[in-house]
Amino acid sequence: MLANARVLNLEKLTASDYLLLLEEPQFAVQASPGQFLHIRIKDSLAPFLRRPFSVAGAPPGKGVLQIIFRVVGKGTAVLSQAKRGTSLTCLGPLGKGFKPTPGLSPAVLLAGGMGVAPLLFLAHLLAKEQKKILLFYGVASITELLPLKRFLPPQVELHLATDDGTSGYRGPVTALLAEALQGGLKPGEMFACGPRPMLQAVAGQNRGWNFPLQVSLEERMACGLGACQGCAVKIRQGGESSYRMVCCDGPVFDGQEVIW
Amino acid sequence: MVNMADLRVRLGPLTLKNPVMAAAGTFGFGAEYAPFFAPEKLGALVVNGLTLRPREGNPPPRLAETPAGMLNAIGLQNPGLKIFLEEELPRLKSGRVAVIVNIAGESEEEYVILARELSAVPGIIALEINLSCPNVKQGGLQFGTSAAAIAKLVSKVRQACALPLIVKLTPNVTDISELARAAESGGADILSLVNTLMGMVIDVDTGRPFLGNITGGLSGPAIRPVAVRMVYEVYRATGLPLIGMGGIMEVDDALQFMMAGARAVAVGTANFIDPYTVPRLISALDVYLDAKGFNGPENIIGAAHR
Ligand SMILES: Cc1cc2nc3c(=O)[nH]c(=O)nc-3n(C[C@H](O)[C@H](O)[C@H](O)COP(=O)(O)OP(=O)(O)OC[C@H]3O[C@@H](n4cnc5c(N)ncnc54)[C@H](O)[C@@H]3O)c2cc1C
Ligand SMILES: Cc1cc2nc3c(=O)[nH]c(=O)nc-3n(C[C@H](O)[C@H](O)[C@H](O)COP(=O)(O)O)c2cc1C
Ligand code: FES
């Protein structure tokens, strides 16, 4: 559960997004889509706490995990300077991931920005199950567009939206999705990850649709293990609401059970 | 022959197999860290703050990283006494760990009920009264900052319970020694210190306090010098055995607390950074004592006062 993962490579994908390859054979075998690693970026007092990152892929037989991350603060800035051959202590693979239901097709993936990371890994699992897969992917602008083709199985049908219209549909990815649904798209089930407003919007609309929705959430974390009760989100189950922990009860939750 | 240190320590009525414990609220009920090492290695496990009734906890966000530490505003989320006794305690007992239960009440009455019920069940070696949790509106802090209230509360709990009684002090006061003496006069067997220091972070994007609870408790290395100083002062102010905590990450940190007067130490935030911190510190303490030719922790406890 705690390992020293070796940095095999760090590659710049866009102006602020990076691909990190970590060698950790046991984690690579254990990891399932939606799970995350809790990484000590540096043995320092600032950044101090571990940082959670989704597993974006674990190509079979390689013993390697892919992490795709965006530099948003001091921890990710330090991580973007990670040196090849050094190692990072990682807790993992943590959390409960996506659970696709056999037979439900097509699978619709909805990604906002960096939220695409766990969905890339999920796409490979769904592809193994021979499902039809559609990925709706939204970013602010063409400059933030990740080279997704490299990470996706070939059969994934990609629908792209940018807020500023510099590539693909102009507008929020949820609007692009809504148009596709109006146009007759009938998802078997849907998996979403991205900014909270996007997830909230799609969970709200989901009440009118009748297909299952799984969402992957983020919260501030300390332990990553369920011990500190820090990463709380409110969940309604069987008429009762309570705080559940993103790190161990999630990060993937039923979209209809989350209280936003 | 090589001198082998004996790590056992006595704290008044309590004997621990070693002086390194897991601090309340940072180690859950032990299950979360069981994949890393057997909980019985711990000198003691202070379990998650327990209240009489279940508590939902504070709205998120509950955590914020700060330089060399973190703020938390969990709000004592816990399943309450009944579920603790039915589900968590049996599991803890099967782990053969020395269990200390950290209790918090919204009234004196609740503390008394908790103490009475918990001292009636086997498998608990001591109670720790949380007087000082700064995150609960009606809870700890009022009790924790007035000497008269502490003395009264502790003596009531004392009468209701036969277990060794640890009183956990808040650092959010002008004179911690006065509160330590109040707890002693109320009948505390042991004092533990410090709880978190109240703090706050503003989100500059929104201009609003970042934490859902507005304020939170600061822990981690950032508070260590404050905590060491308080242990040093309280050691002089009372005759009670002390448990020291606040930012312990390495064995030297634990040594500082012991030299300042603590007979045992507790590790909180460091568990989040390295789940193996407690067993690592126990081994390192052993190595340190052996290297110095000391028989046990006794040789260093209170050294700073000699
Ligand atoms: C389950 C999960 C999976 C994630 N997967 C990815 C991923 O695949 N790629 C990626 O780029 N990012 C991912 N994130 C977000 C990532 O953890 C944060 O961007 C990162 O922690 C920011 O650290 P920082 O030091 O750069 O930022 P700072 O703002 O300096 O961090 C300060 C503190 O806030 C925390 N924090 C800040 N933003 C977030 C956030 N969005 N979620 C949780 N904690 C946060 C940090 O961990 C740190 O404790 C994920 C978050 C979670 C909870
Ligand atoms: C997430 C978290 C939860 C805590 N919960 C409790 C609690 O329920 N009761 C209590 O007495 N102290 C609680 N504490 C305080 C710790 O037990 C400890 O006194 C404090 O964190 C200082 O030690 P540290 O710097 O090693 O963490 C909590 C601390 C943290 C970080
Ligand atoms: S981060 Fe500690 S419970 Fe989730």
CATH architecture heading of chain B: Alpha-Beta Barrel
CATH secondary-structure class of the largest domain in chain A: Alpha Beta
**Main β-sheet description of chain A:** 7 strands, mixed
Alpha-beta content class of chain B: alpha/beta
> Residue ranges of chain A: pLDDT <50 for 5 or more in a row?
none
Number of helices of chain A: 5
Pick out the low-confidence regions of chain B: none
Q: Structural class, from helix and strand content of chain A?
A: alpha/beta
What is the assigned CATH homologous superfamily of chain B?
Aldolase class I
List keywords for this structure.
heterodimer, A: 260 residues, alpha/beta, Elongation Factor Tu (Ef-tu), domain 3, Rossmann fold, Dihydroorotate dehydrogenase B (pyrk subunit), domain 3, 3 domains, B: 306 residues, TIM Barrel, 8-stranded parallel barrel, 4-stranded antiparallel sheet, 9 helices, 16 strands, binds flavin-adenine dinucleotide, binds flavin mononucleotide, binds FE2/S2 (inorganic) cluster
Walk me through this protein's architecture:
The complex is a heterodimer of chains A (260) and B (306). Chain A is an alpha/beta fold. Chain A has helices spanning 25-30, 74-79, 116-128, 173-182, 196-206; strands spanning 2-12, 17-23, 36-40, 51-54, 64-70, 87-94, 107-112, 133-139, 157-162, 169-170, 189-193, 213-216, 232-237, 240-245, 252-254. Chain A has 5 helices and 15 strands. Chain A has a 7-stranded mixed β-sheet, sandwiched between helices. Chain A has a 6-stranded antiparallel β-sheet with strand order 4-3-6-1-2-5. In chain A, strand 1 and strand 2 form a beta hairpin. Chain A starts with a strand and ends in a 6-residue tail after the last strand. The mean pLDDT of chain A is 96. With 306 residues, chain B is of the alpha/beta class. In chain B, helix 2 (108-119) packs parallel to helix 4 (147-160). Chain B has one domain (9-305): Alpha-Beta Barrel (TIM Barrel), CATH 3.20.20.70. In chain B, helix 7 links the parallel strand 15 (242-245) and strand 16 (264-267). Chain B has an 8-stranded parallel barrel with strand order 3-4-7-8-9-10-15-16, surrounded by 6 helices. Chains A and B meet through strand 13 of A and strand 5, strand 6 and helix 8 of B. The complex binds flavin-adenine dinucleotide, flavin mononucleotide and FE2/S2 (inorganic) cluster (FES).
